[in-house]
Structures are given as C-alpha cells and as structure tokens.
C-alpha cells in the first residue's frame, strides 16, 4: 500500500483499478484470469524428491527364539472352522507390566504417568513440536493487517510541497494490507511436512522415554524384591547359626567340643550378620530409585518387604517384521529421515523465483465526517517476482548438504533397526541361558543342602570337627544366594525383553 500523504499529495495507485461492478469488465477479465492461473500453480507437485521409507528386510524369525510348530485343534463337530491366529495376537499391548500380575508393581507403574517429571518434560517438548507444525502451515495462507491512525500536522511554509492555504491540518486514516506468497514450488508444503515428521519424531521420543521409565521401574522393583528374598535367606541363616553357636557352647560345656569350635561358630555368625546389613544398603538404594521414578517424596515413601516369589511369565514376541513398527526409537529415526528428505525439497525450491502478491486499501480524510466515504477511499494491488541470479554455488552446496543429511538419517534409521534386533536377541539369549543356569543351580543347592545335613549329623555324633560344618554351611548359603540372584536376573532380563520389543507401543499411535 502506498504511504499516506497529506491531502492533495496522495500518490497514484501502483496498478490500474479493477472494477467489479458494471464498469471496466474488459480490464478486470485478464487480471482475474492471471489470478486464477497463479492459484492453479500452487497445486503443482512440490520440487524435490518424495519420501520413501529406507528399505530393510527383516528376518523371518529371531535366532534365539525357540521354534515351535503350532498345531491347531480339530474342527468342532458342528462344522465350524478355527480362526488361524494373526501374527499380532501374540503381541504385548498397553500396560505390559500387568503380565507379571503384581498389584504393587501395577500401582507404582501407574504413578509414572502422573508424577514423573522426566516424562512431563518429554510431553511438553512434543507439544511444542506440534505447535511448530501449525506455525509452518500458516505460511500457506495470506497475511493481513489493519491500522487506524489520526493526527494533526503542520507543514513548513517554506517547504517544497507547502500549501499556503492549508499549513495546519488533520489526517485520519483507516488502512488494511494483505500479502501472499503462493507456494508454487512446494517450499512451504515441504516445510509443513518436515515439521509434521519432526512432531511425530518428538511423539515417538515421548513414547521411548515412557517405555524406558516403565522398564526401569519394573527392573528396580524386581531387584528390590530379589533383595528382600536374599534378606529373608540371610535372616534364616542367622537364626540357624545362632542355634549352631548355642550347640557349640553346650558341647564345650559337656567337654566334647573345643574353644575353637565356639570361636568358629561365632565368626561365621557375625560374618553373615555383616552381609545382612550390607544387603540393607542395596535395598534402601533400590527403594529410593523406585520412589524417584514414581515421583514421590522419599521422606514418606516406603515399600514393605516382599520376597520375589512370582512365577516368571512368558513374554509374547510377535514376528520380527513387527519390530520395526513397535520400537519407538526406530520410529524416531524413521521420522527424522522423513524430515531430512523434506529439507532437500526446501533447498531445491531456492533455485526458483519467489513470487509475492500484495494489496491494500483504506480511507483517508482531513475531516472525520468525510472519513469513511467513497471519495476518501484508496487502494493498491500488485505482484512481484524475484530470482537470485548468482550466489557463487551457495544454493547448490545447501542442496547437496541436505541430500547428505538425508543419507545420514537413513543410515541412522537402518542402524537403529540393527540395534533393535541385537537387543532382542541379547535378551532372548539371556533368558535362555539364565533358565539353563537356574536349573543347574537348583541341583547345586540340593547337593549343598544334603552335604550340610550330613556334616551337621556327623558333628553332632562327634565324628568330625566343626570346620566341616562351617564349610558345608558356607557352600549352602553361597548356592542359595546364587539361585536367588539368578531368579532376579531372569525377571530383569524379562523386563529387558519387553523393552527391546517396544512394550505395548506401535507406530499407529503416532499423531496424524
């Protein structure tokens, strides 16, 4: 819009007027046709490559998963047919921690969604990224502004544009302006798509953090319960050693034992008591970790002792091809690759001219009474095209940079897939080997218990020294503790497998 000048000095509009009622139809027809042509160009395909997800061929089965042939039951007598299971039927869903059937764990996991500040931070980051999409989409539409002004002015009597009849005057103006940059080459559309992909990546980041927090909660909780199981074992061992010490003292009083037997029994008892106290340190730290993840004030937070006596559930695996859709970190890498691809189109659009359409209009008068009247109106309409002719290769370099950035993100996406399969295979092998080790260790516990019982009987019968009893009891305690540690590690590995599989999340939960 032209600048508003004092009365009598208004500049002429930059383009001839387009009349829309009755007069000058021959003049308005070419202008309307040009405008329609410009509008049709905005629907053209954006420049630059369209995105296609980087290819990856998932294996047919997990290496470490046991291959079992599922035989369907016979058809029912009424002639009906059994529905074959869908690959997604074996997937964990939603609140995956409920497969452990532990109400206390369920309650702690629920607190993460409402009280954990790390998750809250990730949520706000996603919300900010979502607003960036709306900000980018606004570029597809015109911008408009309006201004209302009133002033009283005095011009110089000796100035070049002085009007002797009116050196002092009022100036009232009401003006509006609009400008639009049609998205001929797709720069704005590519920007919107890049922002959209970035927002989806942020949403997947949120899901990844959520999964990590829930998995850490479950792992710490099971380690806490494993510590409780060991504390129960050590309490029982302390009670047994106190009985052994009392027996050694009575045997000493009866003249069938020595001071060395009593000293050895006392040493063993105090050693186990010290180890029991050390377990208390580990339990306290685990309780603090659980409380922090749950967003609780630690001064008033506690978990009652609950030894780990749960059955270990089987984690449904699904098929390997589903892993690409179930891991939020893989989705993050894929969405960032999509955003990087859109940057190529944005860079390519810089080789094309920038076209802007603008116009303005309003009213200006010396007197309020004639302000909003036809003779006081003014308007302008125009268009501008600008093309950069020489930039010493800057645009080409930026385009190549965008292409290399996309290739880097595509490689990062494929790398995240390799890492995902690696983690699943690791957790599967952990569970398989730990199960085998646990079976062997149970046999060792049984053997150590039998050895301790024999040594205890031999000592009571006066056949052997108390040193044999101490050796057998130490071996029994060590094997029992190892068995409990293996049980805890199996639960933690089970949680790790759920995390490696993506929990109950999949890409259908990404915002559209």
Number of helices: 9
How many structural domains can be distinguished in the coordinates? 2
Whole-number average pLDDT? 85
Tell me the total number of β-strands: 4
Query: How is the main sheet built?
Result: 4 strands, antiparallel
Shape: elongated
Kindly describe this structure.
- With 512 residues, this protein is of the alpha+beta class.
- It has two domains: 93-141 and 183-352 and 393-509, Up-down Bundle (Outer membrane efflux proteins (OEP)); 147-155 and 166-181 and 356-386.
- The chain has nine helices and four strands; from the N terminus they run H-H-H-E-E-H-H-H-H-E-E-H-H.
- Helix 4 runs antiparallel to helix 5.
Question: What are its keywords?
Answer:
512 residues; alpha+beta; Outer membrane efflux proteins (OEP); 2 domains; 4 strands; elongated
Helix and strand layout, with pairings?
Elements: H1 25-41, H2 103-115, H3 117-137, E1 143-154, E2 168-180, H4 187-253, H5 259-293, H6 323-326, H7 328-349, E3 354-365, E4 377-386, H8 394-460, H9 466-500
Antiparallel strand pairs: 1-2, 2-3, 3-4
Helix pairs in contact: 2-4, 3-4, 4-5, 4-7, 4-9, 7-8, 8-9
């Amino acid at each position: 819009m032209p600048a508003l000048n004092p009365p009598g000095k208004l500049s002429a509009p930059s383009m001839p007027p387009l009349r829309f009622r009755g007069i000058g139809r021959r003049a308005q027809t070419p202008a309307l046709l040009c405008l329609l042509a410009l509008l049709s160009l905005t629907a053209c395909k954006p420049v630059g490559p369209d995105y296609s997800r980087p290819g990856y061929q998932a294996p047919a089965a997990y290496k470490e998963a046991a291959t079992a042939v599922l035989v369907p039951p016979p058809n029912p007598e009424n002639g009906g047919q059994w529905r074959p299971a869908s690959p997604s039927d074996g997937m964990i869903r939603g609140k995956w921690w409920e497969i452990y059937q532990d109400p206390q764990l369920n309650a702690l996991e629920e607190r993460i969604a409402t009280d954990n500040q790390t998750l809250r931070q990730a949520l706000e980051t996603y919300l900010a990224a979502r607003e960036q999409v709306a900000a980018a989409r606004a570029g597809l539409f015109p911008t408009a502004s309006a201004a209302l002004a009133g002033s009283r002015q005095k011009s110089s009597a000796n100035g070049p544009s002085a009007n002797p009849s009116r050196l002092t005057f009022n100036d009232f103006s009401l003006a509006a302006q609009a400008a639009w940059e049609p998205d001929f080459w797709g720069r704005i559309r590519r920007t919107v798509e890049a922002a959209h992909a970035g927002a989806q990546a942020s949403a997947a980041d949120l899901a990844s953090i959520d999964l990590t927090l829930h998995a850490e909660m479950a792992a710490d909780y099971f380690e806490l319960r494993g510590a409780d199981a060991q504390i129960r074992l050590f309490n029982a061992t302390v009670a047994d050693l106190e009985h052994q010490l009392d027996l050694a003292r009575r045997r000493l009083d009866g003249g069938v034992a020595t001071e060395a037997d009593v000293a050895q029994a006392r040493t063993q008892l105090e050693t186990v008591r010290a180890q029991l106290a050390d377990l208390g340190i580990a339990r306290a730290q685990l309780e603090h970790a659980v409380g922090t993840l749950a967003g609780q004030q630690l001064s008033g937070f506690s978990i009652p002792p609950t030894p780990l006596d749960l059955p270990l559930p089987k984690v449904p695996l699904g098929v390997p091809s589903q892993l690409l859709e179930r891991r939020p970190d893989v989705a993050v890498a894929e969405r960032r690759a999509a955003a990087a691809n859109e940057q190529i189109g944005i860079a390519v659009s810089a080789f094309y001219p920038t076209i802007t359409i603008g116009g303005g209009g309003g009213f200006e008068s010396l007197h309020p009474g004639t302000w909003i009247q036809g003779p006081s109106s003014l308007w302008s309409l125009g268009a501008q095209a600008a093309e950069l002719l020489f930039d010493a290769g800057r645009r080409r370099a930026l385009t190549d940079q965008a292409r290399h950035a996309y290739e880097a993100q595509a490689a990062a996406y494929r790398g995240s897939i390799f890492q995902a399969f690696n983690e699943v295979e690791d957790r599967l092998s952990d569970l398989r080997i730990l199960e085998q080790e646990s079976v062997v260790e149970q046999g060792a516990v049984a053997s150590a218990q039998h050895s301790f019982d024999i040594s205890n009987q031999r000592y009571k019968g006066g056949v052997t020294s108390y040193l044999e009893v101490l050796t057998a009891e130490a071996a029994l305690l060590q094997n029992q503790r190892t068995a409990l540690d293996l049980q805890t590690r199996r639960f933690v590995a089970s949680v790790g497998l759920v995390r490696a599989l993506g929990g109950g999340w999949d890409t259908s939960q990404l915002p559209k």
